Amino acid sequence: MRKIGVLTSGGDAPGMNAAVMSIARSAALYGMPLVGIKRGYNGLLRKSTSIYDDMEDLHLDTVLDIADRPGTYLRTARCMEFHDPAWREVAANTLRAMEIDGLVVIGGDGSFHGAEYLCQLGIPCIGIPGTIDNDLPYTEMTLGYDTAVNVCVEAVRSIRATSRSHDRPAVVEVMGRHCGDIALTTAVSTGAEIVLVPEVPWKVEDVAARLNRLIAKGNTRATIVVAEGCWESMEPFDMYTYLNTHGKRCYEGEPISAVRFASIMKRMCGNVEARATVIGYTQRGAEPTARDSAFAFEAGNLAVRLLRDGISNQVIGMKEGKVFYMSIDEALRSERSFNRELYNLVNSL
Ligand code: ADP
């Protein structure tokens, strides 16, 4: 193998740049030129007027400084064309034309599907899990998850301090559309009293009853950590009628949100001043923690070594604290398991 490529795809995640830096160091070490492909799979579709808009030779001195920066230097984007076999053929031909003999894809499960298709077209690929959600069950950690949790923990600690000062409960929304891991770990790490996740169905009335019990016991500053996807697992609740009949204007068809949920809690819990905070993109745009950076470093090196040694169609992960690899296909088939015991523990104390 001579030249290799790297791209970041899907949502950005802290640690993506650290992985690119590690890949560049390893490629330099093994004497393999490295090309950075821009905006995910889009950079392979030859839609730009100049190839330089899509690709860049990555020299060590260019990338050494980006390792600890948040975001992704290579940019990332969704690429709907990649669902179409004809476009994937274009991508494979671009790689062949550029004499790129192997590709490292940093992204989530969607990106890994794309990589698997490229392997079937004869392009050796290795995946590195880059997503803050931790929604790839084959690995104990994904790049960016630890950073995202740390951002949330810091935010919840600050929110709990002001909640304590004012005797106000707080609703804090963290990321995780299909996966409640960020919410659960944040709740466990901060002593939050209630956590709501997409994996477990829940009822508005039950949460209000629990909050009322906490208030009755003297805890007037409880924190409810909610994953952004928890509204999907909520039992049907007529927010429009409830809020409008309790003095809060709400519009028909309006989706429930952390702010609306805090309004409902206020009205169901004796007018307590429940306030909502949505942590949002600060979770994705933070500097990677040492844990994420260290994983990126090892994963980047392993990816290059695998390609050098002619091993492809694999993804890298962490098992029992050690970096390992397994086939993309097997990794994508592994089943998610949510830590229900821990969830019950948070919600029962
Ligand atoms: P993630 O990689 O974080 O799961 P997405 O699901 O948005 O993020 O996928 C990122 C990109 O990977 C998509 O925009 C598309 O280019 C490619 N991709 C996703 N799913 C597939 C698929 N089933 N087949 C081919 N390519 C895919």
* Rg from alpha-carbon coordinates: 23 Å
Q: Portion of residues in helices?
A: 40-55%
Number of strands: 11
Major sheet attributes: 7 strands, mixed
End-to-end span in angstroms? 56 Å
Extract low-pLDDT stretches: none
Oligomer: single chain
Order of helices and strands: EHEEHHEHEHEHEHEHHEHEEHH
Compact summary:
The protein contains twelve helices and eleven strands. By secondary structure, the chain is of the alpha/beta class.
Provide the fold topology.
Elements: E1 3-8, H1 16-29, E2 34-37, E3 55-57, H2 60-63, H3 85-97, E4 100-107, H4 109-120, E5 125-129, H5 145-166, E6 170-174, H6 181-190, E7 194-196, H7 204-216, E8 223-227, H8 239-245, H9 258-268, E9 275-278, H10 290-308, E10 314-319, E11 322-327, H11 328-333, H12 340-348
Parallel strand pairs: 1-2, 1-4, 4-5, 5-10, 6-8, 6-9, 7-8
Antiparallel strand pairs: 2-3, 10-11
This protein binds adenosine-5'-diphosphate.
Notable features of this structure?
elongated; binds adenosine-5'-diphosphate; alpha/beta; single chain; 11 strands; 349 residues; four-stranded parallel sheet; seven-stranded mixed sheet
Descriptive account of the structure:
Helices cover 40% and strands 16% of the residues. It has 349 residues and is an alpha/beta fold. Helix 1 runs parallel beside helix 10 and helix 7 crosses helix 9 (258-268). Adenosine-5'-diphosphate binds next to helix 4.
